[in-house]
């Protein structure tokens, strides 16, 4: 828990997100500014600022983020039509919240390459 971190406040319940999935290690909630019909953020409950802060000790946790995203995709009905997961790191990727998160996007056709 980092006191001034928006996503830590969601984990602690100080701010109530629109939760779609939760387990011991992971919380997932709807993005406030959705870029697709399904846009869910999947975060570790533990504060990790960026992908650059991950090491081998986080292997299980990072796997859980992806497995949770696939579960939510199935529950949301987009598993068969398809979806994208995105993780932004630092300025060039446009990371704006410095608590690691995975974007699950689906429910429409995605373009490639991404902008
Ligand atoms: P990033 O740009 O860091 O990859 O993604 C941060 C995401 O957090 C953005 O898609 C943004 O819309 C979302 N976001 C920012 N503030 C809030 C909030 O207060 N609640 C929710 N649910 N999402 C937020
Ligand atoms: Zn945090």
Describe this structure in words.
By secondary structure, this protein is an alpha+beta fold. Helix content is 25%, strand content 22%. It has a five-stranded antiparallel sheet, with helices on one face. The chain is globular. The model has no long low-confidence stretch (mean pLDDT 97).
SS content category: alpha+beta
Count of DSSP E strands?
A: 5
N-end to C-end Cα span: 32 Å
CATH architecture: 2-Layer Sandwich
Biggest pleated-sheet summary? 5 strands, antiparallel
Specify the overall morphology: globular
Which residue ranges are poorly predicted, with pLDDT under 50 across at least 5 consecutive positions?
none
> In CATH, what is the class?
Alpha Beta
Helices, by number, come to: 3
CATH superfamily: HIT-like
Quick structural summary:
The protein contains 3 helices and 5 strands; from the N terminus they run H-E-E-E-H-E-H-E. The chain is α+β, with helices and mostly antiparallel strands.
């Amino acid at each position: 828990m980092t006191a001034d971190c928006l996503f830590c406040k969601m984990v602690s319940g100080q701010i109530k997100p629109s939760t779609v999935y939760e387990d011991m290690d992971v919380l997932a909630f709807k993005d406030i500014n959705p870029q697709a019909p399904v846009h869910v953020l999947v975060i570790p409950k533990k504060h990790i600022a960026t992908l650059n802060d991950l090491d081998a000790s986080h292997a299980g946790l990072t796997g859980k983020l992806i497995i949770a995203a696939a579960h939510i995709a199935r529950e949301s009905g987009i598993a068969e039509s398809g979806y994208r997961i995105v993780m932004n790191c630092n300025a060039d990727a446009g990371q704006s919240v410095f608590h690691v998160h995975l974007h699950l996007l689906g429910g429409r056709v995605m373009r490639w390459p991404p902008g």
